[in-house]
Structures are given as structure tokens and as C-alpha cells.
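User: Quick one: structure for sequence A, then sequence B.

Assistant: Sequence A:
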Amino acid sequence: MAWLPGPRPEGRKWGCLVVVAALPWSPMNLLVTNDDGIDSPFLHALAAALLAGGHSLYVAAPLREQSWIGCAKSRLRPVAAAVAERDLGCHAWSIDGTPSDCVSIALAHLLPRDVRIDAVVSGINIGRNASLGFILASGTIAGAWEGAVHGLPAIAFSQDLTPAQFEAFRASGHRVDPAMQPTLAASAAHAARLVPALAGSTPPRSFTVHNVNFPSPCGPGTPLRRTVPAQVIVPGLFGPAADDGTHRFIFKLGDDVSPAGELTDRAAIENGFISHTVLDYGAIGRSGAS
């Protein structure tokens, strides 16, 4: 089965799921990036699932973690790109820059000249990228957005983790716990099925990013719901000054002030659904835009 974007009936609590029979999608040329870095096992899981789906991949990912960098570009320093000697099964480059740098440099300078990229895919991010308080800060979504501003269909994938799962992942040196592996495998498989449908339904130069968040746990039968970004107020992300006068980042989910009536990305994830939000940047400022 494949999911396609569809209208959301007003006032329907759990959004709208549009399911169609699987269509004969042709294999795609996909540029893949992330913000957690070239060595992220979540990136490798996504790449493996996309390759298994018959697609041709070109991976351009940051040399080091670039979380919370948004769509920043490295304007004030040169950026180095090198062939990545990683077991990704495809052409891959590590780039000493941001996700936006990665996509921009790859599209302009790294890809074989005879390759036409069909879509930019970013992720799978380690942790959710949901709500207005976090979407614009996300390097993962920014990597997809860089594809959109190049006129390409763009999709960002993120995997929600509990605080305990996230801390265990960090403490293990960024290794996926065996208990987490089934969720990551299922999320990557969902992503591989979603990419052709979402990319194929997105017109070129539409300035659209599909933002998909997977819940934890996620399984083969986990349903997908169309959502809107939660409206979240996020004050005080830095603690008071330490003795040396510096401030340290403190993660908070923020206060959800979303109006009732529509299913938000945050609520969908927390209720065990896969969240699919269409970020239509071309609608910003237009009369009647949601």
C-alpha cells in the first residue's frame, strides 16, 4: 500500500488517512542527507531500505553532527568534501558543513553529470522533528528544504525516541540497542515505501517539504495520519550563566498551545501514529493559507 496526501476534513480529531493501491513507481535517483552525520546508524538504515526498494542513492552527509543548525550555510569558511569510505552501498560523501551545505554542494559539484536527481530525502533523524517550536531549527528538515529551493521534491524523516532511549543511544556511543532495532527497521521500511508516493505527488518548484515523524514503538502496521504542526511555545532553552559566564543548552518540549480541532504532529506521535505534515512554504503570506 502507499499513502498520498489528501484533504483533512475540518474538525476531524484524528486527521485523514488516504490509502491507495500500490502504484508502479519507477526507481528514483535520490540524494540523501541528514543532520546527525555520515556515521549515524539511522541514516544507514534509511539508505539500506531505499536501496532495497530499487532506488539509486547518492549520500551527502555532514562529517560531524549538525543538529539544531536549521538551514544555516557556511558562508564564512571553506567547506571540505571527501568521498566517504563507509559501507553504504552507494556513492557517498562526507562534508565538513551543514545539511544545507551538503545538499547544495552535492547537487552542484559532486553528482555524476549524467545523473538527474528526482528527490532529496533527509534523515532518519535521531529524535522527533515536530511542532513550530522545532521545525525551523531542524537540520534534518533544512536538508530537505535545500532540495526544495533547488526545485526538487523533498522529504524529511525523523524517529521519535523516549528520553531513556535517547540517553541509552548516546551512552552506547551511538549504537542502536537491540530493543530499538525493530522500530528503526520498521520506520526505515515505511520511509522507503513513502518516498515514491510523496515525491511523485509533489510538483517541481512547489517549495514543499513532507515532514514525516515515526512514533516509538513503530511496527509494520503502524498507521499514518495527516497532521498540522503543533503550536508550541519554547522559552528558556538555555540555563543561567555558569561560573565562566557561559550558558548551556537545555532541551525542553515546550508548552503546547495548539487550538483544538485538528490532529497535530506532536499529538499523532504521542498516540502511536506516523505523522505526515505537508510544509507548504509557497503558501506563506498568501490569503487563506493555513
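Sequence B:
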Amino acid sequence: MNYISVKVRTSLMHTIKTKTKYWLSPQKATALLALIALVTLSLFAHVRAQTLAQGFGADKSLERGIIVVLDEEDPSRVKPATLDRVEDLYGVIINQNDASVTLSEEGSDVFVATNGPYRVLVSTQNGSIEPGDFITVSSIEGIGMKTNNIAPVVIGRAMTGFDGSNAASTAQAGDRTVSIGRIDLDVLASNNPLQKPAEANLPDFLRSAAEAIAGKPVPAARVYISVFVILVASVVSGSLMYSGVRSSIISIGRNPLSKKSIIKSMIQVILVGLIIFIIGVFGVYLILRV
């Protein structure tokens, strides 16, 4: 009996040892690790697909697709994003059913998504949008546009394009009329990869003046060129008019009989100076708007 028991135990140990060697062989270990990695990636993809939205309060009704920031005084509320708070871009307004999971408290007025693919309102303020373009907020409250190298933060990357041909509406951006529509956007607020650090050296008053004229953010290089052009035009026209008036007054004092012709010449000089100044102003307008 003991002999049989020992034999069975030995056979069992041999079987366990053989199976262990089989499963711990290099080929089987590699296959097992690959299977674990595949399952992990599948679970991660599933979690990533479960988009999350959170409920917030709002002072007014916000349309689906509006880009928002958190209220500075009450982080439980949101409001449409503006250029002066571009660094605080938070998310976009969605319908409650757009997200797989929603978190909300009593009194929530809107739902905001901070990551995932959603429909977002954009404009053609900075040109047509192509798939892959980064999107930031425009000068129109809560509406996005293709970013440039000035905006410090983007709200996501375009998955579809918009050229204004299928616009849902239009709006004024400065003295321009721009088209507004919707695109699919991979929402995720982040630093603008296109931003150039040197642009931060532009004084605020120059930036504000340039944006007011152009109706959109303007690169610092164009702003400085515009300042140079207007200064040169002002100096040239001012010098021309000053010297023309001064010489005319002196000429009239020396030769009163030629007063009419001298005044006529003075007026011509003044007109030339004004034309030079106007050309300078028009040149600045073109530099900022192009």
C-alpha cells in the first residue's frame, strides 16, 4: 500500500514538474506575456472609450459645442471662453447623452466634456479648418477657430474640416463677417504646440490694438512692421508739412505780392503730406489684415 502511495505521489510530482517546464518555456512565457499585454491594451482602450462629462451651473443657456472656462469666482459654474482667458480653456458643452458617463449634482445646468471626440462650434476667423488643425477660442465668445502661433492653449485637434460653405450661421469678428459651423473635435485642452515663445514679448496695448484692427490675433512681427510703417509715414508727412508751411510763411513775408501762389504751393505740400500719411495707414491695415 505504501509502495503504491509513493508511486502515485512520484507520478504526480513528475506530471507537475513536466507541466511547469512546459508553461515556463521561453516560447510559452513570451506568448503568455503577449496575451497579458493584449488584454491590458484592450481594457485601456475600453476605458478610454468611456468618455466622461461633468455637470456644471451656468448663468445662461449654453449651446451644444460652446467652448467654456470655469467661473473664476465659482469653479462649480462655467461660462463661454473669451480671448482674455484663452489660457484657462477647460472643455466643451455637450448633451448629457453624448458621454458614456456623466457626473452631476442637483442644480447642474449644462454638461461639459474635457476629453474625447465631440461636435464643437468653430468659425472661419483664422481661415478654413482642415483635419489635424489645432483649435483655440476666437474673438467670438465660446466659438473656436484654427489656432496660430500666438494662442498659448488649444482646446483640441480637428477631426473634420470646415471652410464656411456649409455654415450654420454668420457673426461679426471685428469688422469682418465670418461663418460659423460645427466640426468633430478630439477635445483635450493643452499647450499650443505651434506657439512661438518670442511672441510673448509683444506689449499688451499693441496686441489689443492690432487685434481690434485685424479682427483676429496677429503675429508680433507684423505688429512691429506696422508700427515702423506708421512712424515713418508720420515723420515724413509731418516733416514735409512743417517745412512747407514754414517756408511759405517766410516767403510771404519777403514777397507779399506772391501770396496767392505761395499759399497754393503750401496747400499742395500739405495735401502731399496727408496723402503720404494716409498711404501709411492703409499699408498698416493691409499688413495686419493679410
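The chain has five helices and twelve strands. Helices lie at 2-23, 26-49, 204-214, 220-254, 259-289.

User: Thanks, that's what I needed.
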